[in-house]
Design goal:
heterodimer; A: Amidase signature (AS) enzymes; B: mainly alpha; Histone, subunit A; about 35% helix; about 0% strand; flat
Amino acid sequence: MSDTHYTKTAHELGDDLRSGAVTATSLMESQLARIDDVDGKTQAYVEVWKNEALERAGVIDNELKQGNDPGPLAGIPIGLKDNLCTTIGTTTCASQILKGFESPYDATVVTKMKDAGGIFTGKLNMDEFAMGSSTENSSIQKTCNPWDLGRVPGGSSGGAAASVAAHEAVISIGSDTGGSIRQPAAFCGCVGLKPTYGRVSRFGVVAFASSLDQIGPFTKDVEDCALMMNVLSGQDPYDATSADIEVPDYRESLKQGVDGLTVGLPKEFYTDSLNDEMRGLIDKAVDVLKGQGANVVEVSLPHSDYGIAVYYIIATAEASANLARFDGVRYGFRHPDAKNVDEMYRMSKSEGYGQEVQRRIMLGTYVLSSGYYDAYYLKAQKVRALIRQDFDKAFEQCDVIVTPTTPTAAFEFGAKVDDPMEMYLNDIYTSTANLAGVPGISIPCGLTENKLPAGLQIIGKPFAEADLFRTAYAYEQNRGFDMGDAPVA
Amino acid sequence: MAKITTEDVEYVAGLAQLILDDDAKQRLVKEMGDILSYMDKLSELNTDDVEPMMHVLDITNVYREDVVGKSLTREQTLKNAPKHDDEFFLVPRILDAD
């Protein structure tokens, strides 16, 4: 029995577990040993649930032995971003204000994966409250990129991306408000999907910006991503924004190919701000799709340039409202020196929130405040409507839109922390999909000269995740190279 | 549009229930000023005839049957509270003793 089963994909492991080539227990033991070996370098995990994971693996093995089917994720080690509520361990959003918080319930996605036989390995690092693009805003630790430990893994789901890239989890789950799944997936060389707004229940994810947040998977390949979306998708009575729209079997779309599919390249994304090296890798990927029979056309998303401004107005406004709930009364940190209720609110928040979270609360409060609401918040909502119309028009000419996921590959620690605006511009290619509510996937499309992964983003029509899988799979199967493993050095 | 002054930062911090020291105030004057200047590019666009988009999904109200469901126990509800007496959340005194 191999000790490196954890390097396989979930669909390969599904076969191995069912045929008896590996047991869930031996798989989990090797997975936990791998975490022991490399997590000191990546620091992806904030909590590892060894005992619970091994106990669950024993249960799954018994089920398999008795000939029962424990579900499509039977025995698969899955890591969770620390903003997903779990009854095991703590849920802190990497914030001091939630230190030690033990959720009394599981997020719906957590319940769904558990019911499908998945086994949770632990909680993964993130930017505090998912606010950031490098995971440097975590109040707990610094997560390193497995491809180059001197560089950031991206963010805000940096731990989730690094864990899959370093084979510290077969699959992980993150959240994406403006690019927080796709950008770290691109930086770490994994597949990452932000579903259509409403596709996946958000019950039990700690809210950042409620009209933008979506939960989605990080995987090693496109097939695993489709497998995960079969499990995660669907309406949930606990989330009124989850849509009553049928969930197809996404795995069936994988092998449909792209012959006759029309791929749109938005001209606004292919400008001087995209560096030549990234541009070259994207061009090659588009050629692969062409070679598979896709038609390629130029499309226009004329309001793309306003995306970041709209995004940071709406996201901070919603965040300032959502984070008001951390008042030191029902849960979370309460400042011990507060002498009255007003002091309790002010001192607890000021001590409990880190710098970036405070900055965003300030901005959000400002754009919603009397006298500025119309100029910023209302204006942003209007331009948001124009951005959605851009996508609707573009999708009259094409089936999917293909862009780079990020303007550059992973950057070094500290490169952007002193300039919040420059950090915000990391979301330039990803945030418009959140504003429009459309799905987007990032898939590795090669390495730069510095041996850092680059990401290709495919954006689809609302609830057309199947088109993303079809396109991404056709590319992945025909790109003609293997990404290889991250060196974790 | 005029950018942010120290007084603006103090006013907004009051609304947001944050206590800022002088360094933080000065930093935010600059950072919020920079970020809001960037956001001012939206004023280039004429949006007089555009309906604001509140939400991307075409959902209005979602109803359910009015039946009692499962809810958390008092113990579960209180377990994360910084201070409680097994029955209520406890907070510092709101009104003066006299």
